[in-house]
Write a structure and sequence with these properties.
The protein is α/β, with parallel strands linked by helices and about 400 residues long. It contains eleven helices and 14 strands.
Length: about 400
């Protein structure tokens, strides 16, 4: 019954989101009424179902305050907040471009003071059955922009290559990219991620009969044992790509890209279309002391498998009714609310001052200071490197 109620709420609230998008002056709060808004937690969702699962919940009313922000998507023009502004939410719109535009508008808006705010990226995505299953909740340390590469149609690739994707500036799929743009890899606060996982593990996750039946196909292959099990909370990493891909060959190629770009420490399990763009904007905000990059949590629930089970085709995997969509949307709330409440309940004693990161946090350039534990190494990024010089010029 609870599952049905959640599903009904998604549908009803999605209609409300559409209404607000069509009428952006509904229930708006005057700007600067009491100075900049200082949220404790900011939910970043990407499209209506992810956002709507937070509406009508017993814990708080996220629609009590609605603030139009210049530069937001015409479809999702408002930030939604609780009455006391402790929790706020935005909807970026799908894809990297929409995410970058919306989060930039937020980060550099004078309407908000985000220096103490925790950002919870809370969306759905695909899942690698070697690591987790549909309905699972994943928390990432690394986000990898896997499709930022050369691409040759796989039908025309050299026979010795296992994929048509080749890192920029390289001449084989296994060579670290020589042309670095800076958005290839982001690393977030591992200690904060582990705390979020601990909170989320207290949730009872949703599932569906269709998902149970569909994931049973993956039990035939020992490598996909995790994919055949019930949903869990998992620490693993995500691949960002505007391309919505399906199939064993692409899945394995991006597994390899993840390991390559993180120097073997990343574990690819989840797909997303927006998060490297979101993280790049937040990093730029942190560079100007507008946000704290150590206060970011990347949570994705798993709506569909990124590859087919043995005996199935990549095409059918892409369009099959896997039964993971509604459970994954529901689990955004069921796991996410534990994280939000955990932060709020321990705000004064723990979270106000921040959680010290035991690991490097930031991008491949070391923009925020420190030395990345991923990247091509000191030779490429030494003080005389043209890449470093170009980066320094960009910062002046």
């Amino acid at each position: 019954m609870y599952f049905k109620n959640l599903a009904c709420r998604v549908l009803a609230s999605s209609a409300w989101v559409s209404l607000v998008a069509a009428n952006p002056v509904v229930n708006l709060e005057p700007r600067h009424s009491n100075g900049p808004i200082k949220p404790k937690v900011f939910l970043i969702d990407m499209f209506s179902p992810e956002a709507a699962i937070w509406y009508g919940i017993p814990e708080f009313n996220l629609l009590a305050k609605n603030i139009t922000v210049p530069g937001f998507s015409p479809l999702f023009p408002d930030v939604h907040c609780t009455a006391n502004h402790d929790v706020c939410q935005l909807i970026t719109g799908e894809s990297e471009i929409n995410a970058a535009a919306t989060v930039t508008a937020l980060t550099f808006s004078s309407l908000f003071d985000l220096r103490k705010t925790y950002f919870l990226i809370a969306g759905i995505g695909g899942v690698n059955p070697k690591v987790a299953t549909i309905g699972s909740v994943t928390f990432a340390r690394y986000a990898i922009q896997v499709a930022l590469q050369y691409e040759i149609d796989a039908r025309e690739k050299p026979s010795k290559f296992n994929t048509g994707y080749i890192p920029l500036g390289a001449q084989s799929p296994t060579t670290y990219p020589k042309d670095i743009y800076g958005t290839e890899v982001f690393e977030v606060n591992k200690a904060l991620r582990d705390i979020a996982i601990k909170f989320a593990k207290t949730a009872k996750l949703n599932d569906s009969d269709t998902a149970i039946k569909y994931r049973s196909h993956y039990a035939k292959n020992p490598a996909y044992k995790a994919g055949s099990r019930p949903p869990t909370v998992v620490a693993c990493d995500e691949a960002t790509s505007d391309n919505y891909y399906s199939g064993k060959l692409l899945g394995e190629a991006f597994e390899n890209t993840t390991k390559l770009l993180t120097n073997g420490s990343g574990l690819y399990c989840n797909t997303a279309q927006e998060d490297n763009a979101t993280l790049e904007v937040l990093l730029r905000g942190a560079l100007h002391h507008l946000v704290d990059f150590g206060r970011i949590i990347v949570m994705r629930t798993c709506a569909n498998f990124d590859r087919q089970y043995d005996g199935e085709t990549a095409f059918n995997n892409l369009f099959a009714s896997q039964g993971g969509f509604l459970p994954s949307v529901n689990n955004i709330y069921l796991a996410g609310i534990k994280v939000v409440e955990g932060i709020l309940h321990e705000w004064d004693s723990k979270f106000h001052k921040g959680i010290k990161a035991p690991n490097y946090i930031g991008d491949i350039f070391g923009t925020l200071g420190g030395t990345p534990d991923f990247g091509p190494g000191g030779g490429e990024f030494g003080s005389s490197s043209p890449l470093r010089k170009r980066f320094a010029l960009n910062r002046e």
